[in-house]
Amino acid sequence: MMIELPGLLKERLPSGAFRYRVRVEGNKSRRIRLNVTPDHPDFMEHYRAARRGVALEVHTAPEDRVVRNSIAWLSYKHEAALERQVNAGQASPLTLKKRKQIMARLREEYGEYDMRMPQMKIIELRDSMLETPAWADSMVEGIRSMYRWAVKDVGLCQVNPAIGIEKINKGKGGAIPWTVNDLKKYRKFHKPGSTPHLALTLFMFTACRIGDAVILGRDNEFKQDGIRGIAWQPQKRGSAFVKIPMVPPLYKATRATKVQGPTYLLNDKGKPFTSSDSFGQMFRRWCREAGLQNRSSHGIRKAAGHLLAQEGCSQYQIMAIHGHTQAKTSEIYTKGVERWRMAADAMKRLEGMDW
């Protein structure tokens, strides 16, 4: 492979093989041997590190491959800390996935800068993404979280430069809540016994998020006081454990599909969906097939909340079903046995719906 880079030396060994060495920038007398060849996917990282005087091993940690105390260095350390939280069950894998995307963009733009990032640079980065305002705001929030960790948790920085930066995405009220007509239209197209019908039923009668829907199955079922229920710990960080009765329409739908597996929802190969993203794409396709545009699973969660409220359920009963914990003063009413009692009462109100 022919490759020409400043300071890169290709040397033939007595054996006939080649080795690659790099002159350190600013010190031509010092040469660092590379432990990878140009066909290795990390070759450029090793080359750039050698130019800075750093010799990388093949499995060198990412933060050790970049300039210490740079933004790239800080971002890699933040990712590693978040990965440890995920492994300990203290953070969501979905959060880590999104944060890695944000950190990659940050490194691409400002990776070589000193980690004490001026606030104006964050604003410039946000404003360069005006065409995707939601993603721009997510970028700022990700940077803010990184510096919050750097300041409060590990003391690597003294100031969080992302504090005070305003959002640019005014939003449109979030996901569109499904109407009763939307629900009927979808169910008219996707008949009972089909996976699309099961998906809607699962969302409607559990109010679960899409990340939870793909992992729910019979292992989540239980019986209490002679009542069959379904329980799970939502993946979203800070959500309360959900434990609700399994109403007849949901039980019937979970048993109506021809193929049964470890999860309720299975792909066309009879296997669990590999991720919430893959299932989300399929669900949006099912919505379009039913003539429903701009509809999402989260909109069903909103519809369930609205219908519960219309049926006279209290705020605390809705909290019990949705797994909310934001109303701090009402937590005493929604924990343990009381949470189950209120959830059972709330779900009974939906049993009489024309489904």
Automatic annotation (TrEMBL):
Organism: Paracoccus saliphilus
GO molecular function: DNA binding
Keywords, ordered alphabetically: DNA recombination
SUPFAM superfamilies: DNA breaking-rejoining enzymes (SSF56349)
InterPro entries tied to this protein: DNA_brk_join_enz, Integrase-like_cat_sf, Integrase_catalytic
Xref: Pfam families: Phage_integrase (PF00589)
Domain of life assignment: Bacteria
Coiled-coil parts of chain: none
Protein name: Phage integrase family protein
Any single GO BP term: DNA recombination
Domain named Tyr recombinase: residues: 197-335
